[in-house]
Specification:
The structure holds 2 protein chains of 2 kinds. Chain A contains 11 helices and 14 strands. Chain A is α/β, with parallel strands linked by helices. Chain A folds into 2 domains: 228 residues, Rossmann fold, CATH 3.40.50; 79 residues, 2-Layer Sandwich (Alpha-Beta Plaits). In chain A, helix 10 runs antiparallel to helix 11. Chain B is mostly helical. Chain B has a single domain, classed as Orthogonal Bundle (MetI-like fold), CATH 1.10.3720. Classes of the chains: A alpha/beta, B mainly alpha.
Chain lengths: 322, 227
C-alpha cells in the first residue's frame, strides 16, 4: 500500500550536507498498522513527511496505493494527498474554526457541496465519539479530544492510508491508550492502512502489526513484529522486554514468540533432570498475541539437551544479557 | 475652575459648527486612508510572509525589495512624507489642499505601517496548521484564504486599530499644512487665535474618536479570538 524505494533525503546544514534519510526501503501492506520507532533525529519524521511529499526526497520513489507520487504534477499531487490522511503531534487544528468546521475543512478543499459536508461531519463526529462537541472550539477541548478531532479530519475524505506523526506523544498515558484504541478500531473496522511514527515502544506493542527500528536515517530492522521478536538479536525484542542483566552462571534468555498451552518449563525439568531457576521475566501483549521473555538459569548434566528441546519447541534460546 | 467650565459650555454652541465640520473632515480622511491601507497593506503584509525562504511562495529577492520599500515608508516622518509626495498628491487629486488631498500622504504613510502589523500577525500562525492544509491537498490560495488570514484575523484587527489611531494623529498633522479636519481647527482657531476652548474641544473630540476605534476593535477581537 505504501512503498518507498531507496529513499534519500539530504539537507544542507551550513556547508555540510546531512543525510536525514539514507536509503530507506519501507513496505506497508494493505490493512496493516506499521510503526516506525526511533529516537528523535533518527529521520522518522522526515520519512513520514516524504510519504505524502510534504518533503520531497532527494532521490528514491514513493508509491502509495499503486501511484508513484514522486512522478506526479502539482495538481495531481494535491488530489493524491486527499487520499492520504494525516494526524499531527500538536493536532494542527484551526483555532478560528469550530470542531465541525475543522473536520469539514478537507471536504471544502476537495470541493464537496455543503449539504454533503454536513452529513459526513456528523458521521465522523460519531465515529470518534465527539457527537456533542460539534460547536466547540479547539481551545475548549482536552488534548485527547483535540486529537480525536484531528483523526476525524484526517478521515474526512475517506483516505485509504492514514499517516500518524507522533499522534500520542503530547498526550497523557490514559489518553494515549484511548487514542491508540481508536486507531486500532479504525484499522479493524475500516480496513484503514496506518503508518505511524513514534518514539514510544509502547505504541508499537499496542497497535502495530509490523514495525521498523530507525536510527541515523536508516532501518536497523523491519518486518512483522512477531517475526522480529523471534529473530535472534532483535533490538525490538530487547526493547520490548527490558530485563535486567544477570551475572548468574548458565543463564539463558528464553523468548516465547507466541503463547503456549504446554507446561514447557516443568516438562524440561522432568525430561532432562535439570534445575530451572527463573531470574526475571516479562509477558506482553504484542499484536494481539501474548509473547514473553524469561531469563532463567538452567543447570544440570543434560543442559544442552534441555536447551535444544526448548529451541525445537519454537522458543528462541539465547545467551542472557550480562 | 467652575467659571472656566461654565464659559466653555457657553462657548460650545458658537463653536459647534466648526467642530462638527472638522470632525467630519477628520473621519473622512481617516476612513478613506484606512480603506486604502487595508487594500494595499493587507496583501503586502501577507506577501512579506509568504515570500520568505521556506514560505508558501519563496522569493527571497522579492521579499528583500518589498521589505526595503516598506522600510522607506516606515522611516519617513509623516510631516516630511506629506511634503515629499505633494506632486503625487496633485497628480492624483488635482490639489494639495483639503481633506481629499490629505488622503494621499495619509495612505502612503499608513500602508507600510499596517503591512508590517499584518506581517507580524500572519507570522504568528502555527506552521503546523499550514502544513496540515498542504497535507490535505490545499492550493496555496486556499492556504492564504482559509488558513493564514482567518487564523491571523484577531491580530490583523488589532493592527487595524493601531493603524486607525495612528491615522487620526497623522490626520491632525495633515491639518497643519492645510489638510482640514480637527487638526486644522486646533491650529487655526486654538493656536493662532489663542482660543484655548477650541484647543480643548478638539482634544476631547480626538480622544473620543481614538477611544471609539479602540473599543470597537477590542470588541471585534474578543468576539473573533478563540484561542
Amino acid at each position: 500500500m505504501i512503498e518507498t524505494v531507496d529513499l534519500h533525503k539530504v539537507y544542507p546544514v551550513g556547508k555540510r550536507r546531512v543525510a536525514a534519510l539514507d536509503g530507506v526501503d519501507l513496505s506497508v501492506e494493505q490493512g496493516e498498522v506499521y510503526g516506525v520507532v526511533g529516537q528523535s533525529g533518527a529521520g522518522k519524521s522526515t520519512l513520514l513527511r516524504c510519504v505524502n511529499l510534504l518533503e520531497r526526497p532527494t532521490s528514491g520513489r514513493v508509491v502509495v496505493d499503486g501511484r508513484d507520487l514522486t512522478a506526479l504534477g502539482a495538481a495531481e499531487l494535491r488530489r493524491a494527498r486527499r487520499g492520504i490522511g494525516m494526524v499531527h503531534q500538536h493536532f494542527a487544528l484551526l483555532s478560528s474554526r469550530t470542531v465541525a468546521a475543522n473536520i469539514a475543512f478537507p471536504l471544502e478543499i476537495a470541493g464537496v457541496p455543503r449539504r454533503r459536508r454536513a452529513a459526513r461531519v456528523a458521521e465522523l463526529l460519531d465515529l470518534v465519539g465527539l457527537g456533542d462537541k460539534a460547536k466547540a472550539y479547539p481551545a475548549q477541548l482536552s488534548g485527547g479530544q483535540k486529537q480525536r478531532v484531528g483523526i476525524a479530519r484526517a478521515l474526512a475524505s475517506d483516505p485509504a492510508v492514514l499517516l500518524s506523526d507522533e499522534a500520542t506523544s503530547a498526550l497523557d498515558p490514559d489518553t494515549t491508550d484511548s487514542i491508540l484504541e481508536l486507531l486500532a478500531d479504525l484499522n479493524r473496522e475500516l480496513g484503514l492502512t496506518i503508518l505511524l511514527i513514534t518514539h514510544e515502544m509502547d505504541v508499537i506493542k499496542k497497535v502495530c502489526h509490523s514495525a521498523a527500528i530507525m536510527a541515523d536515517g536508516a532501518f536497523q530492522e523491519a518486518g512483522r513484529v512477531l517475526d522480529l521478536i523471534a529473530t535472534p538479536g532483535s533490538r525490538l525484542a530487547d526493547a520490548l522486554f527490558p530485563l535486567p542483566p544477570t551475572q548468574a552462571p548458565d543463564a539463558v534468555a528464553l523468548t516465547y514468540p507466541r503463547a503456549y498451552d504446554e507446561p514447557l518449563v516443568s516438562e524440561v525439568t522432568r525430561r532432562f533432570d535439570v534445575d530451572v531457576n527463573i531470574l526475571a521475566g516479562a509477558v506482553e501483549q504484542v499484536a494481539g498475541t501474548s509473547v514473553g521473555r524469561l531469563n532463567v538459569q538452567i543447570q544440570g548434566e543434560r543442559r544442552e539437551g534441555a536447551l535444544r528441546f526448548l529451541a525445537d519447541k519454537g522458543l528462541l534460546v539465547q545467551e542472557a544479557a550480562r | 475652575m467652575i467659571d472656566v467650565l461654565t464659559e466653555f459650555a457657553e462657548r460650545l454652541p458658537g463653536m459647534s459648527e466648526t467642530l462638527y465640520y472638522g470632525t467630519l473632515d477628520t473621519l473622512y480622511m481617516v476612513l478613506w486612508s484606512t480603506l486604502f491601507s487595508v487594500a494595499f497593506g493587507l496583501p503586502i503584509g501577507v506577501l512579506l510572509v509568504t515570500t520568505d525562504r521556506g514560505g508558501l511562495t519563496p522569493a527571497p529577492w522579492f521579499k528583500a525589495l518589498l521589505g526595503a520599500v516598506v522600510n522607506i515608508g516606515r522611516s519617513l516622518p509623516f510631516i516630511v512624507l506629506m511634503v515629499a509626495v505633494l506632486s503625487l498628491t496633485r497628480l492624483l487629486t488635482g490639489t494639495t489642499l483639503g481633506p481629499t488631498a490629505a488622503i494621499v500622504p495619509l495612505s502612503i504613510g499608513a500602508v507600510p505601517f499596517f503591512a508590517r502589523l499584518v506581517e507580524t500577525a500572519v507570522r504568528e500562525v502555527d506552521r503546523g496548521v499550514v502544513e496540515a492544509a498542504h497535507a490535505m491537498g490545499a492550493r496555496k490560495t486556499t492556504v492564504v484564504g482559509k488558513v493564514l488570514l482567518p487564523e491571523a484575523l484577531p491580530g490583523i484587527i488589532a493592527g487595524l486599530v493601531m493603524t486607525v489611531v495612528a491615522l487620526v494623529s497623522y490626520s491632525a498633522m495633515a491639518g497643519a499644512i492645510g489638510g482640514g479636519g480637527l487638526g486644522d481647527v486646533a491650529i487655526r482657531e486654538g493656536y493662532q487665535r489663542f482660543d484655548d476652548y477650541y484647543l480643548w474641544a478638539t482634544v476631547i473630540l480626538l480622544v473620543v474618536i481614538v477611544q471609539a476605534a479602540q473599543s470597537l476593535g477590542d470588541l471585534a477581537i474578543r468576539r473573533l479570538s478563540r484561542r
